[in-house]
């Protein structure tokens, strides 16, 4: 699996536990430092400088391109960004002249609007470029506001012969001890029907018992299930609720965590008697995202690395669905508890990039047969 915008390795951790060798492209130096400490094959680079021919053994494409411009979709800026991306997707699928698309992309104010098109560039290049092979599976994940982009991707990939499903998933419904909503797309080459993973746990509803709801599903997991703390506690968010900075969000240890963000270490942790307790450690913050307890967080801005990551437990469910495999069993899910660098795939299976270099004018933004540069 080649993972674009790979971050500290949430998808890669899940894939490696499933026995799928991975290589991640990431340009943030700190995230790369964490990945290397974990033994994950990493290319510290701009995804725009690479393409499928650089990773000829990869038959799975994954990615979580930056989508911050779409989080204000109700305002003019976000709506315009969505319209622009959807317009470019149609042009790329129509195999419009590459140079014209490159020229128009260069005029965009926000570079992130261009970056969100990169997974599609890779997917189309794998179909069109000489000596490349179409990806068997494609996995994309981002904030809920990215769903209209994934829906446009879905139409594009269906046109190219993929079965696709996309929707917003809730992490607590897959055993993550955290309420978090993510827009997810999975695609698989061929005519077979593709479906996102079915929930395994009940949805969290404030004030409703975890025992209430569908008896076929497990209760949602609590922070106390993931963290080894001796007594009950409350987490007081760094953020206000309802737009009031004084009305801090508050979750108890017998509830799931609120969405883990890059500011997680600013959250206060207090006892039932409102006594200040130690704030979350790196390991604890990672555990709320279902990273292994001993995952080697490194570099700067670790909170941001953790907050931006895909929860590995959710990722394992998504990957199995994308591959057409059965849902992960308890043994596989429990394997996420710890990390052993010696069992990581390492630089094998031709995971390191081949020495193919794309020049700016050769990047297959609009598909079409093309040969690599020198």
From TrEMBL:
Gene3D superfamilies: DNA Methylase, subunit A, domain 2 (3.90.120.10), Vaccinia Virus protein VP39 (3.40.50.150). Its EC number is 2.1.1.37. It is an enzyme of class 2 (transferase). Pfam families: DNA_methylase. The active site is at residue 67. The keyword Secreted does not apply. GO terms for biological process: DNA restriction-modification system; methylation; negative regulation of gene expression via chromosomal CpG island methylation. Keywords: Methyltransferase, Restriction system, S-adenosyl-L-methionine, Transferase. InterPro entries: C5-Methyltransferase (IPR050390), C5_MeTfrase (IPR001525), SAM-dependent_MTases_sf (IPR029063). This is DNA (cytosine-5-)-methyltransferase. The lineage of its organism: Bacteria, Bacillati, Actinomycetota, Actinomycetes, Streptosporangiales.
């Amino acid at each position: 699996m080649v993972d674009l915008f790979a971050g500290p390795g949430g998808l890669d951790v899940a894939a490696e536990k499933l026995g799928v060798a991975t290589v991640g492209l990431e340009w943030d130096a700190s995230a790369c430092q964490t990945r290397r400490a974990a033994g994950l094959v990493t290319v510290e680079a701009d995804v725009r400088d690479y393409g499928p021919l650089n990773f000829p053994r990869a038959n799975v494409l994954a990615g979580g391109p930056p989508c911050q411009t779409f989080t204000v979709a109700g305002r003019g800026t976000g709506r315009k960004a969505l319209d622009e991306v959807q317009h470019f997707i149609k042009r790329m699928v129509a195999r419009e002249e590459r140079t014209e698309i490159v020229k128009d992309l260069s005029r965009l104010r926000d570079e992130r609007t261009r970056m969100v098109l990169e997974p599609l560039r890779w997917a189309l290049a794998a179909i069109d470029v000489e000596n490349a092979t179409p990806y068997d599976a494609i996995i994309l994940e981002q904030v809920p506001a990215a769903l209209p982009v994934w829906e446009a991707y879905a139409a594009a990939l269906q046109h190219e012969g993929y079965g696709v499903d996309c929707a917003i998933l809730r992490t607590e419904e897959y055993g993550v001890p955290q309420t978090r909503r993510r827009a997810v797309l999975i695609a698989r080459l061929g005519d077979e029907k593709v479906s996102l993973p079915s929930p395994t746990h009940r949805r969290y509803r404030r004030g409703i018992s975890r025992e209430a709801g569908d008896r076929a599903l497990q209760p949602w997991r609590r922070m106390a299930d993931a963290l080894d703390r001796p007594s009950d506690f409350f987490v007081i968010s760094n953020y206000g609720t309802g737009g009031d900075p004084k009305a801090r969000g508050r979750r108890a240890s017998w509830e799931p965590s609120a969405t883990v963000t890059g500011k997680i270490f600013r959250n206060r942790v207090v006892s039932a008697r409102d006594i200040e307790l130690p704030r979350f450690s790196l390991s604890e913050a990672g555990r709320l995202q279902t990273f292994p307890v001993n995952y080697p967080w490194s570099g700067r801005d670790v909170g941001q690395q953790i907050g931006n990551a895909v929860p590995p437990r959710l990722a394992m469910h998504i990957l199995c669905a994308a591959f057409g495999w059965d849902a992960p069993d308890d043994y596989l899910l429990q394997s996420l508890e710890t990390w052993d660098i010696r069992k990581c795939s390492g630089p094998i299976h031709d995971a390191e990039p081949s020495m193919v270099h794309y020049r700016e004018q050769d990047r297959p933004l609009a598909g079409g047969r093309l040969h690599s540069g020198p």
